[in-house]
Design brief:
Elements: H1 3-22, H2 27-33, E1 45-49, E2 54-56, E3 65-69, E4 77-83, E5 90-94, E6 98-99, H3 103-112, E7 118-124, E8 133-139, E9 148-154, E10 163-168, E11 176-181, E12 187-191, E13 197-202, E14 211-215, E15 227-229, E16 237-242, E17 248-254, H4 256-260, E18 268-274, E19 280-282, E20 291-298, E21 304-311, E22 321-326, E23 336-339, E24 344-351, E25 357-364, E26 376-381, E27 388-389, H5 392-395, E28 399-404, E29 410-415, E30 423-428, E31 439-442, E32 449-456, H6 474-487, H7 491-504, H8 509-522, H9 525-538, H10 544-556, H11 559-572, H12 577-589, H13 593-606, H14 611-623, H15 627-636
Parallel strand pairs: 2-8
Antiparallel strand pairs: 1-3, 3-6, 4-5, 4-7, 7-8, 9-10, 9-32, 10-11, 12-13, 13-14, 14-15, 16-17, 17-18, 18-19, 20-21, 21-22, 22-23, 24-25, 25-26, 26-27, 28-29, 29-30, 30-31
Helix pairs in contact: 1-2, 6-7, 7-8, 7-9, 8-9, 8-10, 9-10, 10-11, 10-12, 11-12, 12-13, 13-14, 14-15
Length: about 650
């Protein structure tokens, strides 16, 4: 750099310092104006990290300051830190293009830069400081105290572990809390506001086996109070979003049109699951088959649901629009546009916990960009308004998957499709929605794993032993305990265990069968009915729960309820022999001989060797005056071993 090029740079620095002296309240803004200074003249040294203008949390570990030199020959650089206070600065000669402050030096830097910027300079030791580069950094007094949940996947197919979840703290350099859960929690992962609940969907067949919502603690333990949500009434489940408090979940149920869509995230119709009964129902205002819906997210008060919507049309100019829907008004709710930018897809809304801000992803809707993963993060007021791109779009490749800290002052996000070395990024958001350049945070991913998502969590519950396999689900444990109690002759205890298993997992058909058999054997019909009733909506496509419930109602004398269930079950499985015989027995008890004869006839067409049913049909025919048909019915039955004929005296 020539002397002629240095004078404009010196003038701008002196003029900015003069303005800061006149307007100290505007110092942060004026220091940000200095970000253009490195672009005034070409420097021989370029600082790669941190980015000028970044803001550090007070509890973050010391970052590594990295730079590169245009000339590979130099091996000595001067590093100087100038503070904006009356104390002395710091300087050191470095022999490699990188330096990490010791904990003691970093603590001093943080203490002296709280709401007060400092300048870091790096230049060749044989030249003056203006030949190098400089960055401005600052610390705020808002800590990053919330733990972070890391969702990691294997980078290759080798090894047994394909997915794991870990909890760590940004304030602990490489120090992870002792929490690891592998295959049993693999799949889509989301957490509710405050981080109090964790939701996951098995990744092998998303939604085919239901999904789980459980309280989150430091060991990711499958707490006995977790909720099991049965499979959707059709299609796979994507982008599940738990409501604040975990009382309900909204997710995308893939549709045929959504499977054919070539742009945007996995799409379909939106369904809502209630944690009390596990029943899935379409979301009014977000289940119109003329549209596709994707990426739902709740507002922190649980009133508004944000999602993206795409109109099904042959128009290539169609784009994903960000909508919001009032979930308190029921079926009368109508979605309202929040962001609708022509030629831009707007997806993945992420509301701040204080309800003020909304971050979403935007990318081009042009056909040439359909397969691109490049996106831009934009921030706006949560109810719509002026939107602007975040600073991180300029410094990070493809920022995505934003997570807000519980106090809404920090955002955590990944860069690109994944980060093999565990690098994530943290940016500060001030009360006016202004974001700082991001700070890199290395989560120290274990060998062979890559971080695909990072989520801030709230205050965690007390620790408990980790659960590493689905066989240790609380419902499964209760079922095994019930089986052992039944084998020991402790029927009442076994019934209690089976009821507990069905309360934890209402769709647990194996536990329902065991409870049914035991109650039929012991005559405790009334104890099984509530649990089997919860099973029916949990398995809406299955006829077996209805037949079990009908048999229990028949034993208690509630023949109308029994007939209603068995008819519904036969509408789902018309040739089910268990249902046909049960229908025949129920109508026989109701003295509806005509219907009973029809059901017995249909049943014997499927099971002609059932002598008891054939005898019951013959008796009904005889009682109704058709003795010839009764005799013919019995004559059709030919057992393999005929008994000796009985002779009278």
């Amino acid at each position: 750099m020539t002397l002629r090029n240095k004078w404009p740079l010196l003038f701008c620095l002196l003029f900015t310092a003069h303005l800061i002296g006149m307007y100290p309240a505007k110092s942060q803004f004026l220091w940000r104006c200095c970000l253009i200074l490195p672009a005034i003249a070409h420097a021989d040294v370029e600082i790669l990290h941190p980015v000028s203008g970044c803001i550090f949390p007070p509890d973050v570990p010391a970052p590594e300051i990295l730079w590169r030199d245009s000339d590979p020959a130099p091996n000595h650089w001067n590093l100087v830190i100038e503070f904006n206070d009356i104390g002395p600065g710091y300087s050191q000669t470095i022999e490699q293009p990188g330096w990490r402050p010791s904990p003691e030096i970093w603590k001093e830097i943080q203490d002296r830069t709280v709401n007060n910027a400092a300048v870091v300079r790096v230049y060749r030791s044989d030249q003056d400081s203006l030949s190098g580069d400089r960055v401005i950094l600052q610390t705020v007094d808002t800590p990053l105290s919330a733990p972070v949940l890391l969702h990691e996947q294997a980078t290759s197919a080798q090894g047994s572990r394909t997915c794991q979840l870990r909890i760590t703290r940004i304030s602990a350099p490489g120090g992870l809390l002792p929490a690891t859960v592998s295959e049993s929690l693999s799949g889509y992962v989301r957490n509710s506001f405050g981080g109090s609940h964790l939701l996951f969907v098995p990744e092998q067949t998303p939604g085919a086996e239901g999904f789980y919502l459980l309280p989150l603690n430091t060991h990711l333990f499958l707490d006995p109070q977790y909720h099991f949500f049965p499979p959707a009434p059709g299609g796979q489940i994507f982008s599940p979003a738990p409501a604040p408090g975990g009382k309900q979940v909204v997710a995308v149920v893939a549709s045929q049109a959504g499977n054919k869509a070539s742009s945007g995230p996995p799409a379909g119709l939106l369904y809502r699951w209630d944690a009390e009964n596990g029943v899935a129902t379409p979301v009014p205002g977000a289940s119109d088959p003329g549209y596709l819906y994707a990426t739902p997210a709740w507002s922190p008060d649980g009133i508004w649901l944000y999602f993206s919507r795409l109109k099904l049309t042959s128009d290539t100019a169609a784009h994903w629009t960000l909508m919001r829907l009032n979930m308190d008004v029921g079926a009368s709710g109508r979605p309202v546009p929040v962001v609708s930018t022509p030629s831009q897809h707007t997806t993945h809304p992420s509301p701040s916990p204080d309800g003020r801000w909304l971050i979403c992803e935007q990318r081009s809707a042009q056909p040439a960009a359909l397969t691109a993963v490049c996106s831009t993060l934009i921030l706006m007021p949560s109810r719509g308004g002026r939107k602007r791109p975040l600073f991180c779009n300029r410094t990070c490749p493809r920022p995505r998957k934003v997570s807000w800290s519980p106090d809404s002052r920090w955002i955590l996000f990944s860069s690109g499709t994944c980060s093999a070395d565990g690098d994530l990024w943290v940016s500060h958001i001030d009360p006016f929605g202004n974001d700082s350049p991001p700070v890199r945070w290395n989560a120290k991913t274990p060998d062979g794993m890559t971080t695909v998502q990072a989520l801030f969590t709230g205050s965690l519950q007390s620790s408990a032993p980790p659960v590493l396999h689905p066989e240790t689900r609380p419902s499964r444990i209760a079922y095994i305990q019930g089986t052992l109690a039944a084998a020991s002759g402790k029927s009442s205890e076994a019934i209690g265990f089976f009821q507990a298993a069905l309360k934890l997992s209402p769709g647990y058909l194996e536990a329902a069968r065991a409870l049914f058999s035991l109650c039929m054997k012991t005559g405790s019909y009334a104890e099984a009915i509530p649990a089997i009733k919860r099973l029916c909506p949990a398995a809406p496509a299955s006829a077996e729960p209805l037949f079990l419930l009908a048999a229990l109602y028949m034993q208690t004398g509630a023949l109308e309820d029994a007939e209603q269930r068995v008819i519904t079950g036969l509408s789902r499985a018309p040739l089910n022999t268990r249902g046909l015989k049960l229908a025949a027995e129920i109508t026989q008890k109701k003295h509806d001989d005509e219907q009973s004869i029809r059901y017995y006839t249909r049943y014997l067409n499927q099971k002609p060797d059932d002598h008891c049913a054939r005898t019951a049909l013959a008796r009904l025919l005889a009682e109704n005056g058709d003795r010839e048909l009764a005799v013919a019915t019995l004559a059709v039955y030919k057992p393999k071993q005929l008994p000796e004929p009985l002779t009278g005296p």
